[in-house]
Design brief:
Elements lengths: L5 E7 L1 E2 L7 E4 L2 H11 L8 E8 L2 E10 L4 E5 L2 H6 L7 E7 L1
Antiparallel strand pairs: 1-7, 2-3, 3-6, 4-5, 4-7, 5-6
């Protein structure tokens, strides 16, 4: 992704307990801190930051949201991606994001 900053990390897929049962991966706190310090100016409402995500050879346009309770960004992993890659709750994933 030319002209974008790339971050690579490993994280566990988890399911939110609330309505809708969204699945997320939490970005590591040091990466979130760096992104927040340098790119917060690009955030839209509710700490939303547009990104490109890559996982298991699948790349998609999405966004990360800053979660003040967890003090980190969250990357939602939609059903289409989970189904395509046969992902399950608690899977440990290698993820790339481009901002």
């Amino acid at each position: 992704m030319k002209g974008r900053i790339k971050y690579e990390f490993k994280s566990t897929l988890w399911k939110h307990d609330g309505t809708g049962g969204w699945y997320f991966v939490s970005l590591p706190k040091p990466i979130s801190k760096e992104i927040r310090e340098h790119l917060k100016w690009q955030e839209e409402g509710w700490g939303r930051l547009k990104i490109i995500a890559g996982l298991g050879g699948v790349v998609w346009d999405t966004a990360i949201w800053f979660d003040t309770k967890r003090n980190t960004y969250l990357l939602p992993v939609k059903a289409e991606i989970r189904k395509k890659l046969s992902l399950q709750n608690d899977d440990f994933l290698s993820i790339s994001i481009w901002i």
